Amino acid sequence: MTLSVYAEVGSNFQQVGGDCPDGWIQMISQRPDGEDTLLYTASDTGRWVISETTRQRIAAAREASWVEEEMVVIAEQLVMLEDEDPSALPGTSRQWRDYRIALRAWNEANTDFPDTTKRPVKPT
After folding, report:
1. How far apart are CA 26 and CA 45, in angstroms?
2. What are the pLDDT digits (tens) for 62-120?
3. Are residues 41 and 86 both part of a single domain?
4. Which structural domain range is residue 106 located in?
5. I need a labelling partner for 67 at 20 to 30 A (CA). Which of 6, 13, 82, 120 fits?
6. Both 71 and 34 in a single domain?
7. pLDDT recorded at residue 123
8. pLDDT at 2 over 90
């Protein structure tokens, strides 16, 4: 026996079996299981989807983590340049500081954020 699945459009909650609650719709299937299960929301077509809003939130979080990682690299490179360490990556102190400034501006206020193809570019 297959039980009906109900959900409220835009919500992650589902009800399996029973009567359809007011304002909810019947879904085609249960919400997908797995590590991404909480990312899915019910669409008005009766399908579970990961919304564009959720995708943007995930991308923004990934980019924020990337910026944090790059800030560590920059700090290390500036010390290496100050010490005249021959193993420093290419770029002058000014170029690394400019990169740091660009990274600070790489956030949700930037119209290209979080498009990874538009990220600030590391000195070469």
Report:
1. 9
2. 999 999 999 999 999 999 999 999 999 999 999 999 999 999 999 999 999 999 999 99
3. no
4. 57-118
5. 82
6. no
7. 97
8. no
Are 62 and 85 members of one domain?
yes
**Within-domain flag for 124:** no
Read off the amino acid at residue 120: P
Q: Are residues 40 and 68 in the same domain?
A: no
- The structure tokens listed for 101 are 């400034």
The type of residue at 102 is A
- Report field, pTM of the whole predicted structure over 0.90: no
Check the CA dihedral 104-107-109-110 and report its sign. Answer: positive
pLDDT in tens, 20-45: 999 999 999 999 999 999 999 999 99
How many structural domains comprise the chain?
2
Residue that the structure tokens 């498009």 belong to: 115
From the CB of residue 90, how many other CB atoms can be counted at a distance below 10 Å?
10
Distance CA(92)–CA(84), nearest Å, equals 11
> Which H/E stretch holds residue 6?
strand 5-7
Q: By C-alpha distance, which of 51, 68, 49, 48 is closest to 5?
A: 48
pLDDT of residue 108: 95
